[in-house]
Amino acid sequence: MSDGPAASRAALATETWRAIRADQRAARETLTDRWIVLAAGTLLVLMLLYVLIGNKPYVHEVALDPLTGATEMSPINRYIWLALGALSVPLLWLRRGDLIVAFRQLWPLLLLLAWFALTTRWALDPAASSRRLLLYGVNVAICVAVAVGLRDMRRAHMAMAIACAIVVAIDMASWIIIPGRSMTPLGLAAIHSHKNTLGAVMLLAGFVCGTYAWGQAHWRGRLFWWAVTVCAIALLIASRSKTSLGIFFALAAFTPAFVLVLRRRPIEIVGVAALIGFGITLLLFGWLGYAYAVGMDPIDPVRGVTFTQRTDVWAFVYQQAAQHPVGGVGFGSLWDVNPQVQPSLQTDYWFARPDAFTNEAHNGYLDIAATTGLVGLAGALFLLGRWMLRGVLLLRAEAIAVPTDRAGLAAAMALGIFPLLMFGHNWMESSYWTANSIFGTIILAVGIQMDLTWARRSAGAA
Questions:
Q1: Count of CB atoms within 10 A of residue 192's CB?
Q2: What's the rounded Cα separation, in Å, for the pair 421 and 395?
Q3: Which residues are CB-contacts of 215 (< 8 A; sequence separation ≥ 6)?
Q4: Burial class (CB in 10 A: 0-12, 13-18, 19+), 177
Q5: How far apart are CA 397 and CA 394, in angstroms?
Q6: Which of 420, 383, 337 lies closest to 113 in space, CA to CA?
Q7: One pLDDT digit (tens) per residue for the chain, 462 residues
Q8: Distance (Å, rounded) from C-alpha 93 to C-alpha 403?
Q9: Helix (H, G, I), strand (E, B), or coil: what is residue 64?
Q10: What region holds the O-antigen ligase-related domain (predicted)?
Q11: Distance between CA atoms of 248 and 343, rounded to whole angstroms?
Q12: Residue 278 class from Cβ within 10 Å (0-12 exposed, 13-18 middle, 19+ buried)?
């Protein structure tokens, strides 16, 4: 009779001990997860700060290597990327359980990197090509570590907003304190190398901080982040970067209208798309009819447009792509290569210097075609199209969610629309898969984050 109560007390004590141990284990896991999130967010902020500021602050003149004629290679760049890559290793180890899912979701990206690696075998400058691909591989590893560490688009949005706010503060202080050093004959450059760089940075900062301000729950947060957004717009205007200015104000008008459309029923969305397509077709045929009626060449008004001499560079890069249509001249092996490796490249036109130094095609799709061929271009377009589609679908999911998560919708706007922004910006600037490009780095972070978010939501729905 006495064994029964004693056994019950022992069983109760065992269950209590197990419950306490489980609670302690859960508390440790929660604390570890918080530290991982903090580390991943810090890594994303550090990476963005380096990408947005660069390794040569206030250097507004391009330094050319007297032996090669190309821009000087900075060893600091590779050391910083390798240091950031080293910081990502602990995150990858602690989240190693998520890496299998990540690799399954990122198969188009991995296949594209494999093709890029193959093109280094026939690159014009194999050393430069391999080095740039290696650093891009480090970049991808960092973005994967950040994505598996944060596990939430809202956290990624917050880290991006913090990095942008820091850069806005630095540039605004530079403009106020040392205006003479911050201003160039073409426009405000502040701490950056060129006024177009400042324009691209403030385009990003205005969009990211503006959406983050909209997503704030309290008025103090909204006031602060709207103030940051206004400062970013002021710097953008002072930069006189026409491309970034046009894209920003178009984006400011497009984003709320796009979210309103996505909140409608699918049949209504299809109707709006059909109406827009019909309107564009009507305008096109109307113009052709008018040109025919007055006996004018329909393309005559745009025949002399050079987009600030971009068309000359486009023609040159198109010629290079046509000479190597399948495999290109090797990843990262078109601009800033050593002409001594290929003496036939020792021409002024190769470096596109009719009036100013240019080391890109000012069209990322042409650069991809010239360096990695039609295979690389097809893979890059598929990957970007996939990110664009998933961004729109994730944004629609947040837009129709009940109740509306304001912070979640703001994050979906920033990350979901950025691939669309990238698609448009890359027509006039070489950003996509261009070494040390601001938008080229951020699209990797955003795209990988969306892919893993898509995987988690698909697993939750199943």
A1: 30
A2: 14
A3: 157, 406, 407, 408, 409, 410, 411
A4: exposed
A5: 5
A6: 383
A7: 456 677 676 777 777 777 777 766 777 777 788 999 999 999 999 999 999 998 888 877 665 555 545 555 667 888 999 999 999 999 999 998 889 989 999 999 999 999 999 999 998 888 888 988 999 999 999 999 999 999 889 999 999 999 999 999 999 999 999 988 888 888 898 898 888 889 999 999 999 999 999 999 899 999 999 999 999 999 999 998 888 898 899 999 999 999 999 998 889 889 988 999 999 999 999 988 888 888 888 888 777 777 777 888 888 888 889 999 999 999 988 877 776 665 555 455 555 444 444 567 888 999 999 999 999 999 999 999 999 999 999 999 999 987 778 899 999 999 999 999 999 889 988 889 887 788 999 999 999 999 999 988 887 655
A8: 36
A9: strand
A10: 228-379
A11: 42
A12: exposed
Q: Count the alpha carbons within 13 Å of 388 in the hemisphere toward its beta carbon.
A: 12
Q: DSSP letters of 236-290?
A: HHHHT-HHHHHHHHHHHHHHHHHHHHHTS-HHHHHHHHHHHHHHHHHHHHHHHHH
Phi, psi dihedrals of residue 335, rounded to the nearest 5°: -100, 150
The tally of CA atoms less than 13 A away on the side-chain side of residue 295 is 0
How many Å apart are CA 362 and CA 337, to the nearest integer? 17
Name the residue type at position 250: A
- Dist. CA 225–CA 416, nearest whole Å: 20
Give pTM, 2 decimals: 0.87
Query: For 71, which DSSP code?
Result: B
Q: What's the token pair of residue 216?
A: 């704030």
- DSSP strands (E only) in 28-172: none
From residue 14, alpha-carbon distances to 18, 21, 27, 264, 431 in Å are 6, 10, 20, 56, 61
The closest alpha carbon to 214, from 201, 223, 205, 202, belongs to: 223
Cis peptide before 403 (omega within 30 of 0): yes
Give the list of residues 6+ apart from residue 242 with CB closer than 8 angstroms, or none.
308
Query: Is 60 in contact with 189 (CB distance < 8 Å)?
Result: yes
